[in-house]
Amino acid sequence: MNDRAALDLLVSQGPLTRTQIGELTGLSKPTASQLLARLTAAGLVRTTGNVTGRPGPSAQLYEIDPAAAHVAALAVDQLGITAAVADITGQVLGQARVDTDAVPDDTTDLTARLVAKAVDGALAEAGLERGQLHRAVIGTPGALDPQTGLLRYAPHLPGWQSRALREELAEVLGVPLVIENDVNLAAVAEQHDGAAQDFDDFVLVWVDEGVGAAIVLDGRLLRGATGGAGEIGYMPLPGAPLARGGERSAARPDAGGGFQRLVGSPSIVALAHECGAPEVRTVAEALALDDVRAEVARRLATGLAAVVAVVDPRLVVLSGEVPQAGGQALRALVEEEFTGLALPRPEIRISDIEGNPILTGALRTALAEARDAVFDTA
Question: Residue limits of the HTH marR-type domain (predicted)?
Answer without folding.
Answer: 6-50
